[in-house]
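FW: tagging you since you asked about this chain on Friday. Here's the raw sequence from the shared folder, copied in full. Didn't touch anything.
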Amino acid sequence: MTISDALEKANRMNLLYDFYAPLLTDKQQKYLQYYFHENYSLAEIAGQFHISRQAVYEHIRRSEVALEEYELHLKLLENFEKRTDYLQQMEQVVETLGEEEQVAQLKAMIRKLKQC
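HL: got it, structure written out here
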């Protein structure tokens, strides 16, 4: 796995975690937080919980699979990314419009949509 692939995977796991953390067990949440958010190594996590590195790896792997399963069925991340893309497209279109008042209204709507 290249550095780019590893970074992409970490980013995806962090995003999935943001959406689905409440569906994970407390233990799964802690392991993923340490590994992906805090950038702890497997050995550091193992020492923290007094278990083997292999056990930590298995917990993290199962948690990753669970997150991907949740996304497969619920599609919260996919829909979020689509909304973000649409918002960017809307902003570009608004910039090409002419009438000041309409542009200001559309920009205000976009800001509100971003806050949702």
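FW: Helices lie at 3-20, 26-37, 42-49, 53-74, 76-96, 100-115.
HL: agreed, and The chain has two domains: 3-74, 78-115.
FW: great, closing this out.
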